[in-house]
Amino acid sequence: MGDTATENIFNWISNEPKIVNAAANLCRLMDEIVSSE
């Protein structure tokens, strides 16, 4: 079951759902703010 769940999650994330894309953009923005200070 662990392999199936891992494969399903990998397939879901590799399709770049909006929530993953939004989280990545938020992390990049936070990183830019911290690094510029």
UniProtKB/TrEMBL annotation:
Question: What domain of life does the native source organism fall in?
Answer: Eukaryota
Q: What is this protein called?
A: (+)-delta-cadinene synthase isozyme A
Q: Give every Terpene synthase metal-binding domain span.
A: 1-37
Which GO-annotated molecular functions does the record name? magnesium ion binding; terpene synthase activity
Stored Pfam families: Terpene_synth_C
Q: Extract the InterPro entries matched here.
A: Isoprenoid_synthase_dom_sf, Terpene_synthase_metal-bd
